[in-house]
Amino acid sequence: MGDYTASIGTTGYDYTVTLKTNRVEFSLPPTGAFVRDPAVVRALDITDGLSHTLFVGEKYIPRGMELSYPYDCNLYDGHNMVCSTRAAGPGFPIAAAPDDPRLLFGGPHTGICLFVFADGAVHPVRTSIDENVLGLLSHRADGLPSPSDY
């Protein structure tokens, strides 16, 4: 068990997902610092900058769900990624309520969640951060400027 989890970016998946919409098929690749596909993300692949990319953050566990799958389970179980990864960005905010049932980042600190960025620095991020801004921080290579105030 553990209180931290790896950032898989904005899509909610750590692998490429193929979607079909109105007979159009497209692929949605993983965008975070930790991915299953491709198997390795190098520092050079984090083109938005190591100091602007989420690496690891506090894992939110809803009240009453301690020691319960999929919220609070083994961090080092490679075949069960839901236990050790979280997405951040649109649709994946930082948890702000103690009983939110979603798989999110979040911690015990009022108003903030602690993250390790890809450069190794630890920074608090406000739980009220705009989801789009959070997405800029969790995407390793979107080419968009990341905010310095979060």
Question: How would you describe this protein?
Answer:
The structure is a single chain. The protein is mostly beta strands and 150 residues long. It has one domain. The protein contains one helix and seven strands, in the order E-E-E-E-E-E-E-H. The strands form two sheets. Strands 5-1-4-6-7 form a five-stranded mixed sheet, with no helix packed on it. Strands 2-3 form a two-stranded antiparallel ribbon. The mean pLDDT is 91.
What are the main properties of this structure?
150 residues; mainly beta; 5-stranded mixed β-sheet; two-stranded antiparallel sheet; 5% helix; globular
SSE topology sketch:
Layout: E1 4-7, E2 17-21, E3 24-28, E4 54-58, E5 85-86, E6 112-117, E7 122-126, H1 131-138
Parallel strand pairs: 1-5
Antiparallel strand pairs: 1-4, 2-3, 4-6, 6-7
Q: H/E element string?
A: EEEEEEEH
Rg, Cα atoms, Å: 15 Å
Q: Give the structural class.
A: mainly beta
Tell me the count of domains.
1
- Strand residue content: 15-25%
Count of DSSP H/I helices: 1
Shape field: globular
Report the uncertain regions: none
> How would you describe the oligomerization state of the chains in this entry?
single chain
